[in-house]
Each structure stands twice: as C-alpha cells, then as structure tokens.
Write a structure and sequence with these properties.
This protein is an alpha/beta fold. The protein is built from 4 helices and 9 strands, in the order βαβαβββαββββα.
C-alpha cells in the first residue's frame, strides 16, 4: 500500500533508468579520452550518481560534498553552507558536479563559484531534475535528466525531512504532507 502522503508519480523507475543510461552515453562521448572527477552533492544525488557511474565508459573518480540551503524547511533559505567538503584536490581535473535537482539555482551558483576557485581544468553540471519555473539565478546545466513542474518532489534520493529518499520513482507530495512539514 502506497503512503497517503505520496500524490502523483511524476517519473516512473524505468523512465529514470532509461534516461540515466542515455546520460551515461552522452557524458562518456563528451569525455572520451579524459578522466572525470565526479562531485556528488549529498545526500540527494547518491542514488543517481551510483546508477550514472555504472553507465559511464570513461575513467572516473568520485568525491562527495554536502551543502545546505534548506535546513529542515521546504524552501531554500538562500544561505548556503558547506557541511562536508571534498576529500581531495580538484586542481587540473575535469569536474562533473552531479546534483539531484536544481531549483532556485542559488546553491549550485555558490558551489560552482567555490569549486572554480580551486583550479579545475573544467567544470560541468549534471542534474537528474530541474525546475526552471523556480530559477532565481541562471546556472549552466550541461546534462539534464528531466524537467519537473513546480511541485514538491520526493523519491530516488529526494526527501522531505529525510523521508522518501528510498522510493524507486519520483513523485509529488500531497499538499497536506507539505503543509504538515512546514
């Protein structure tokens, strides 16, 4: 039985996996002959990065960052904090930031500025999901999985108060669930 807080399923599990396979082909083609350092943005991108890495045919490393602009709220505060920094240097490396979702763009803008200051050879962004209608700043997203409507989405790494990350699909929460969490 499905959780009553889960509303409409926005992206089915098989659609996610098919698009991730396509992204893997595209990224592998673009980085042919080069190694990638994947920077996985925790916690939401963990499932995505694991599946994406298995689709890549080019050599890659992975490192992790945790940043926050939400805290326990359902909307970004606009104040970005680094909760966990990278373990190693990115100087001279081809960096691919892997995000779960780009909403306002404020967190990604901060993250890109921070990482650019560390001297990578290149820096690109791969986001499973994007909500262009919520964008406050323009950010360059090289690889995008799906565009979402302005709904609060959970599943496949996305959460509400740390719940629902384990769902194999992406779904919209009911208005009542969002109101209860606010």
């Amino acid at each position: 039985m499905r959780d009553p807080n889960i509303g409409e399923i926005l992206i089915q599990a098989d659609e996610l996996q098919a698009r991730i396979a396509d992204l893997g082909v595209e990224i592998s083609r673009d980085y042919e002959g080069r190694e990638i350092l994947i920077v996985c943005v925790l916690k939401g991108a963990v499932l995505f990065v694991a599946d994406l890495m298995r689709q890549l045919t080019v050599p890659c490393e992975v490192d992790f960052m945790a940043v926050s602009s939400y805290g326990s709220a359902t909307r970004s505060s606009g104040v970005v904090r680094i909760l966990k920094d990278l373990d190693g240097s990115i100087e001279g490396k081809n960096v691919l930031i892997v995000e779960d979702i780009i909403d306002s763009g404020l967190t990604l803008q901060y993250l890109m500025r921070n990482l650019r200051s560390r001297g990578p050879a290149s820096i690109e962004v791969c986001s499973l999901l994007t909500k262009p209608s919520r964008r406050e700043v323009e950010v360059p997203i090289r690889y995008t999985g799906f565009e979402l409507p302005d709904r609060y989405a959970v599943g496949y790494g996305l959460d509400l108060a740390q719940r629902y990350r384990n769902l194999p699909y992406v779904a919209a929460l009911t208005d009542a669930a969002i109101a209860a969490a606010s």
